[in-house]
Design brief:
9 helices, 228 residues, 0% strand
Length: 228
């Protein structure tokens, strides 16, 4: 690296950490809303007729929450795993936690396909995006596991960064969805339904995940493989 890159890198890491923190917070808030809305209805055996988006989660809670719950665990733990300081100071914890998070990520990714494809709110567009990026996420995890089994730490970290970049894209989907909904309300003067159009939700999937795959590749080229 050049001297300029070495100087700029800590700032880049801090900004990236803040961005990741914001996205994970968005995902946690969305998850809390899901629990608050779905929980009482699942326990009571009722379905809110005015919330079509929530009906999928309530009608198929096992599929939905076997995706959501382990996914939350993975998103909360993965930043620690990708932290060089945490790895060097707590390597044994890093290895044990890594096994747990890998299982959580694989389960979450599998059930993302089982739930997100047949019950996609955004129709075919969202379903196809779920297949494309869900399979990419699972492939990255498997390749990361294979790399570390060969003691190829460099490739292991590269594949784990790619996997995490896709996973945290869930938060960016919510951002795009909010933008589209705000634009729709502004254009219609507030006369349309506050629920986001399903077609736009599918587009939000493609925009968010494509952005995150691209950013993940950019990060791998911008920072050293073993420290970035």
């Amino acid at each position: 690296m050049t001297k300029e890159t070495l100087t700029a890198r800590p700032r880049l890491v801090r900004r990236t950490a803040v961005a990741i923190g914001v996205l994970i917070t968005i995902v946690m808030a969305s998850t809390a809303v899901r629990f608050a809305v779905d929980g009482p209805n699942i326990l009571a055996g009722t379905t809110p007729r005015d919330d079509v988006f929530a009906q999928r989660y309530i009608a198929h809670p096992w599929l939905a929450y076997l995706h959501i719950a382990p996914g939350v665990v993975y998103l909360l733990g993965a930043p620690l795993q990708l932290s060089r300081r945490f790895r060097t100071r707590h390597y044994d914890v890093h290895r044990r936690l890594g096994r747990v998070l890998l299982v959580c990520a694989l389960v979450s990714g599998l059930f993302a396909l089982l739930f997100g494809v047949p019950y996609a709110w955004g129709g075919a567009s969202e379903a196809i995006a779920t297949v494309v990026f869900g399979c990419w996420f699972l492939a990255c995890l498997v390749l990361a596991f294979r790399a570390i089994r060969r003691d190829d730490v460099r490739q292991h970290r590269r594949w784990m960064i790619r996997a995490f970049a896709v996973a945290v894209g869930i938060g960016t989907i919510r951002i795009w969805a909010a933008i589209f909904e705000s634009v729709e309300q502004a254009v219609s003067g507030g006369t349309t339904s506050e629920a986001l159009d399903p077609t736009m939700f599918g587009i939000a999937f493609w925009l968010a995940f494509t952005m995150h795959v691209a950013v993940g590749e950019w990060w791998l080229r911008r920072t050293p493989a073993l420290t970035g």
